[in-house]
Design goal:
By secondary structure, this protein is of the alpha+beta class. It has 11 helices and 9 strands. A 5-stranded antiparallel sheet has the order 7-6-8-3-9, covered by helices on one side. Strands 1-2 form a two-stranded parallel ribbon. A two-stranded antiparallel ribbon has the order 4-5. Helix 5 packs antiparallel against helix 7. The two termini are 22 Å apart.
Length: 289
């Protein structure tokens, strides 16, 4: 019993198992020409809801489709699973799939195998739900295309009175911080490190951003309150977040002085102190999860 958040080390494993069983039961026939993942089954389910009983599913599908941080069907399927787990309705959706033959009959498996896979999914969902409150971050979704293991995501909010002073690099559609300029807001306030990702600014997603896009957004918001969503290159345990390894290597090739290792204790103390009391140059600046 208790509350499960994204920092729970077992959450990703449970979600991987859920996905594996769903994919096994709902995968496309071997000779199919069109790629079809379990996400497409959730989408198609709505087309056969003639009685309007799946309004919550419809809202979740719309929210998933509208999320600009998701580039693939795999990412959308994972986002949808997280949404429905958090809302405690995924079990009902899978039950509805069991009784909607026109959605699952295109699978290359027998009806019995499909039903067994979906029943296993329901059992895992009920196990996850028993006495547990799932508090998952909907905003932290930019890496669902690649991994169930999510990065540390923080929000920095402030009204800066000087230039932020971040040197940025665009790699694979993501905005990385390469360096901090001397005496800049970023260096003084220590809210970001080289290797971190600027994921969103004031609700504007920078996933799949073009070169210079972050600078354009910041220029338009000059002098206004900022809410910056940061993806940290360090995981919960202080080690490198694995999906970022190749990108950090590229950054290090460009700037060899960068160090992506465990944070020294003295630096941890300084960072903790900085979070407790922001500089005078920031008005009501704060971190939030």
């Amino acid at each position: 019993e208790g509350t499960v958040t994204d920092s729970n080390p077992h959450l990703a494993t449970c979600c991987e198992l859920l996905e594996l069983i769903l994919r096994k039961g709902l995968q496309q026939p071997v000779l199919s020409l069109a790629h079809r993942d379990y996400w497409h089954c959730f989408e198609q389910l709505l087309h056969h809801d003639t009685c309007g009983r799946l309004s919550s599913v419809s809202l979740a599908v719309q929210q998933t489709t509208a999320c600009s941080k998701l580039m693939t069907s795999q990412g959308r399927g994972r986002f949808f699973i997280r949404l429905m787990l958090m809302r405690r309705t995924l079990g009902n959706v899978v039950k509805q799939l069991l009784h909607t033959n026109r959605v699952i009959e295109v699978s290359g498996h027998s009806q019995v195998m499909i039903e067994n896979c979906l029943l296993q999914t329901i059992n895992i969902i009920y196990f996850l739900r028993s006495g547990i409150a799932l508090m998952l971050s909907v905003k932290n979704c930019s890496f669902l295309d690649e991994s169930w293991l999510l990065p540390v995501c923080q929000i920095y909010e402030a009204v800066p009175c000087r230039e932020l002073g971040m040197v940025l690099r665009y790699l694979d559609g993501r905005v990385f911080v390469l360096d901090l300029l001397q005496c800049s807001q970023a260096q003084v306030d220590m809210f970001v490190e080289p290797g971190d990702i600027i994921d969103e600014i004031n609700g504007i997603s920078l996933r799949n951003a073009s070169n210079g896009q972050a600078g354009v957004v910041l220029s338009k918001l000059k002098g206004q309150p900022l809410s910056i969503h940061l993806i940290r290159w360090r995981g919960e345990d202080g080690s490198i977040y694995q999906p970022l390894v190749k990108h950090l290597r590229q950054l290090k090739q460009e700037k060899p002085s960068l160090q992506f290792g465990p944070k020294p204790a003295s630096q941890q103390d300084r960072t903790a102190g900085q979070k407790r009391g922001q500089t005078q140059c920031v008005k009501d600046g704060r971190y939030s999860q």
